[in-house]
Protein 1
Amino acid sequence: MNEYVPSWLSLLPAGVAIGLAFATRRVIVALFAAVVTGGVVLYSQTGDINDANFVERFLLPALGSKSYAKILVIYLWSLGGLIGIWEKTGGAEHFARVVGGRMAKSARSARVFGWLVGIIFHQGGTVSTVLAGTTVKPVCDEHKVAHEELAYIVDSTASPIATVIPFNAWPAYVGALVVGSIPIVADDGAALGLFFASIPFNFYGIFAVIMTLLFALDLLPWVGKRMKAARVRARETGALDAPGANPMLPPKEDAGSGRAEGYTPSLADFFIPLGVLLSVGVLPTVLIKMGVIDSSPVGINEAFVGCALSAMIVAKARGMSLGDVMDGFINGCRSMTIGALILGLAVTLAEVTEVLDTAAYLVTLMDGNLPMIILPALLTALCMGIAFACGSSWGTYAVVFPVAMPLAWALVPDPTYIQICFGAVLGGAVFGDQCSPISDTTILSSMFTGCDLMDHVYTQAPLALFAATLGAVCSTVAVVVLV
């Protein structure tokens, strides 16, 4: 048997997934074909027929992994059940009507409301997309905000804001990747300090958040042909989706049995579960950052389970029958079936790209003899490509940071230059994660705003690409001016 050596073939499965997703608009078909391709590629390199068995080699290990179990229990069952309970109680709609209704008087103000909610839920990625999408969708639907618009707002205030307002798990994760990589990052404290010092140079994250606000305010002079068409369609015809769109979650009227008979919604139905989520999942992180506590026995996983349970308890305590409570929970979980399938295949493809060393191979394509002035822009582009191909910003960080920091230090051993390069990696990976059709955040942003996945990808990409290009230019200018 041959030893596996990463080559251009490592890019093939991700290329198949992305290419078929754009060509067919059928993400399940694209992801499945990519997994099969991964088996073929691995077999062609190793000669071991067992590697061609993609079910045994990739599918079963991925679906039996802790990461997929977390997706099922946390994001699909807990959040699906929570949304089903909110549908039974009317809690989320009541919040949107009472709170959002006071602010949202038009499509513009409804979009701004969505942007603000995205900023508030700044934990990043899946957490933000699900909560923000669920909360603001009723208000935006009422004011004829196209689902493509809402999906962009939700997605572009998820991971980007998490790298700009980092009161979450991102600094600790990224910091652990760079500790000891260069002399000025000798310990965890120095790594966290580098993260926070690099925030002003995370140009993509900053521009993405600002551009999303300008988009919400209708102040961008250009939004792309497809997004403009979606906006015009929604305003003039009331159609929130494009013709032929296929949202992953069914329309509300088909999603479940509706409001429980005789139950009066209250803000408690919304705020108590949300309070449990924030107090259990976010407050300990803030206290650790402040030095009040050293560690927490609970985290975001326990927070989501507690959030769903508290929603059920509140509904039962306020008079809903146990049967209606369980019907709401089960209907919510059932509505996540397609999402579970897509995310399962996405997790499997991530397993494929890890085994094939796709990200590592892309990193090796960068020549070490680089002019120092263009390194930040090249790091941005490299991370954009890796994260787009792999669908993961954190996976991209794990591969790029240990290489990028020593490379930057070898070129210019200056703290400011390191901060600029650090910010370039942060932003570039977030772009790829945000725009890739195989990313969980892209999938969930589409799912919970009721948008067709590929419609979201097509309409969001031009805006995000403009922000990324502007970010790369600014990082180059920063090197010229500050280093």
Note: The longest helix spans residues 453-482.
Protein 2
Amino acid sequence: MEKFFQLKAHNTNIKTEVMAGITTFMTMAYILAVNPGILSAAGMPAGGVFTATALASLIATLVMALIANLPIALAPGMGLNAFFAFAVVLGMGYTWQLALTAVFIEGIIFILMSFFNIREAIVKSIPTNIKKAVSVGIGLFIAFIGLQNAGIVVNNDATLVGLGAITKGPALVALIGLVLSGVLLALRVKGALLIGIIATTIIGIPFGVTAVPQGWAPFRMPDAPLLFQFEFQNIFTMDFVIVLFTFLFVDIFDTIGTLVGVTTQAGLITKDGEIPRAKQALLADAIGTVAGAALGTSTVTSYIESASGVAEGGRTGLTALTTAGLFGVALFLSPVFLLVPGAATAPALILVGLFMLSPVKEIDLSDFTEAIPAFITIIFMPLTYSIAEGLVFGILSYIFIKAITGRFKDITIVTWVVGGFFILKHLL
């Protein structure tokens, strides 16, 4: 373990990494329940999607652990699964088999892009201050997701968002969990976030938030995955190209944003602003997407919930290896993991938002050509509900402000190309 994952070099140990991996898994295990629910709306068998979700997450996270040695877990991406079901299948009228074909081709393109270092070049093209802003923006975004999952923040037609019913139900349980987890962190208790998740799940039982069904049993054999359900004969249309482009765009910049944010929080970014083993990390995402499509699920991407494991001290691929192992266990113990309500994971997500704010201290706020793009990156991520759009408008504002003020030398050729790609995407 020490030799393979270089634990001492990363100032960590096996116990810390395992606890971090468990924490990451617990904060993202909701995808095992949510993904089958979303994709079944497109007519896909929920049981098969559950198996595909667990297996694709296991494979992709395992590749991240063993090849990239980074504490980042992967699973079918939220947002991308909704686009798959509600836009491509229900909206455009395509079959779910054709949508899976688009995901499969996207993954193949990603593998080629990774081998030719195209995605790595995009990562390098992101200005240093925007890289720091990405971590902060993701922090606000992940905290917002936690507040939503708990019902603390809810929809309001007049103001877009408002305060939920915090004196009962999931919101109250989440607030109790938030205080409990906060106290554990203040007391420097190891595994505070994981303990908080488990304790809040138990607290939720008398409140009716943690639902234990009658006849509940922890063990269940998984259904067969939806293997190789492709329709290559219908890919030669403009609508299909647009679908493929959308999958490509969102996945590229969601993954890059997550990679930059989580590695920044973990202190793994080099002095030159480089992400270690970025090529291997991006390849893990691409392999996961291809495997996921072959098994029967939507696009696999890096998860911002990995930040919860990093907050627990995870620094190497051993964290990801632990998470991958738990996805394997979840195949047979799905009733156990599906017991954990959103109210129990919400406190961990909210507190991770705090942990990810620290890079804001390193952003150069005295230079407005740097500060304004960084601020736009930060504020757009939670308010557009998209890591990708935060990056898009952060980099575009960087290019425009630098160019108009005559500071062309600060803009690299790749940054210009990426900016042009962003404009093309929004025009289309």
Note: The chain has one domain: 2-427.
Protein 3
Amino acid sequence: MSPMQALVSATENGALAANMLNDVGTVEVGKCADLVLLEADPLEDIANIRKLGFVMTNGAIIDIEALPYVRVFVRE
């Protein structure tokens, strides 16, 4: 799976599977303003998804330092 396919799977396809594509999953006018801006291009290296620039939820930028850090998936 390419980095682009992984990103689409996690966003647009995830919203489609949850029957929420009208509200979330892509950046479009009228959808919920929940998004993550990255410091580096995830298409160049998928590990760049860990390089957060800012996080926005409900249209407001939130403090990244206040986010909990708990790994969900860990590869040994």
Note: The domain at 3-66 is CATH 2.30.40.10 (Urease, subunit C; domain 1).
Protein 4
Amino acid sequence: MSLTDADVRRIAHLARLAVSDTEVEAARGQLNGIFDMVEALRAVDTTGIEPMAHAVEMGQRLRDDAVTAPDLRDKYQAAAPAVEDGLYLVPKVIE
């Protein structure tokens, strides 16, 4: 697939981009290069190949799930005007 200058101008209009004549030529070359790359990828036979989530099989390094900060909820809620069961109570705003 090869784009024309009119195609590039239409794409720029849809994207609300102002492009000059030199920018249209440069963008046409870049977009045609992208389309050529996509066509090359489509030409590769991928039958029998399972889809992968990542190009390299790797695992996530995880740290131990341990509490490192003290529980200060009661201290913070002591200054609140209304608290119930560990939750802040606020006036109803929406009817």
Note: The first strand starts at residue 83 and ends at 84.
